[in-house]
From TrEMBL:
UniProt-listed GO biological process terms: methionine biosynthetic process; transsulfuration
The protein's required cofactors: pyridoxal 5'-phosphate
Single annotated GO MF: methionine gamma-lyase activity
Family: Belongs to the trans-sulfuration enzymes family. L-methionine gamma-lyase subfamily.
Lineage: Bacteria, Bacillati, Bacillota, Bacilli, Bacillales
Domain of life: Bacteria
UniProt-recorded name of the protein: L-methionine gamma-lyase
Keyword terms of this UniProt record: Lyase, Pyridoxal phosphate
InterPro entries from the UniProt entry: Cys/Met-Metab_PyrdxlP-dep_enz (IPR000277), Cys_met_metab_PP (IPR054542), L-Met_gamma_lys (IPR006237), PyrdxlP-dep_Trfase (IPR015424), PyrdxlP-dep_Trfase_major (IPR015421), PyrdxlP-dep_Trfase_small (IPR015422)
Reaction it catalyzes: L-homocysteine + H2O = 2-oxobutanoate + hydrogen sulfide + NH4(+) + H(+); L-methionine + H2O = methanethiol + 2-oxobutanoate + NH4(+)
Residues modified as N6-(pyridoxal phosphate)lysine: K207
EC identifiers of the protein: 4.4.1.11, 4.4.1.2
Record GO cellular component, one term: cytoplasm
Keyword Lyase belongs to the record: yes
Amino acid sequence: MDTKRFETEVIHKGYHALQHHGSLSPPIFQTSTFVFDTAETGASRFAGEQEGYIYSRLSNPTVAMLEERIASMESGEKGLAFGSGMAAVSAILLGLTKTGDHILCSEGVYGCTFGLLQLMEEKYHITHDFHSMSDEDSIRGSITDHTTVIYIESPINPTMKLVDIEMVARIAKEYGIPVVVDNTFSSPYLQRPLELGCDVVIHSATKYLCGHGDVIGGLAVGSNELMSHLAMTTQKDIGGVMSPFDAWLLLRGIKTLPVRMDRHCENAKKLSELLKEHPAVETILFPGDPEFPQYELANKQMKNAGGLISFQIKGDKAAAQSFMNSLQLIKIAVSLGDAETLIQHPATMTHAVVPEESRKQMGINDQLLRLSIGLEAWEDIWSDLEQALNKI
Ligand code: 4LM
């Protein structure tokens, strides 16, 4: 099948019903291992001389369908599926570095990615620096002889700051350094970093790709050469792979990604306008707000602003917590990208592991809240927010 539009590929890519008894829904190959017809077949599969499945930690047909689908969605050659977003982040970062190397990172990252970077520094002497990535010369000045990866989130969790992905990719090319982008907040429907010159895209598939809050998973996409190397090293030997059932749930969720994202974006835009006007709200951080400092950049590299709104309420941590406790429809929970609207307090939840000083540098204070706007009627989400804000 030749390449079709994104909305079509999310439904069809990687699956051929007539090769599976005409089953419209793909089969779940719920098996740990695969039977060889002869000892020689097994030997030649292990030697890489013959195509075919061996063992589900190496590859599985249901998981492979998902890997083909995400590769197409991100305009990459090869996808890999992992047991969580963090399994993907760690396999990629450990695969691209060795002791003595240096990673240049965006100004903020998800709390557990921060934890992983700390661990890599303490245990393996792989150092890192956080950088605003707003100025070309300053980026060049921060690349050292030991820099082997540039790692960015855009938008950054939870401050929503953006990185000019095309600019960073262009600079990295001058030095031959791979750029890895965690694209979780946008999903490939809104932003495709490989098309902007980056080398690897990572997703916490747990979020928008799944969309229904019932899977923990990770995905990564890049060139055939690099991803095949990672598949046979940090993926296979650390072993954080995805189960066939989770891959099936993701194949199902991904079919509706474009329609879900359109609704998340519409709801978020509407709610950002209302939140911004409320007297109990100090500032909103939303790339779709015309007053957002990087509004132009958002328009340049994202199809739409996404479904996440961070905002600071007037008051202190206790005010933020009592506001959360007043909510009735909106659920207090970490994670994002689900049908349900979720709210969390980054300073004490997703980014609690980040020491206070680093949190402040990233722009996370006690007044900051992060909303993952769901698919409910925006009027109902607003009624809930408004009644809780009015109590502050
Ligand atoms: C959260 N985030 O923010 P797994 N990359 C990004 C993320 O936001 C996350 C991961 C990787 C949240 C989880 C509690 C940008 C997770 C890690 O949780 O390992 O699938 O993804 O609320």
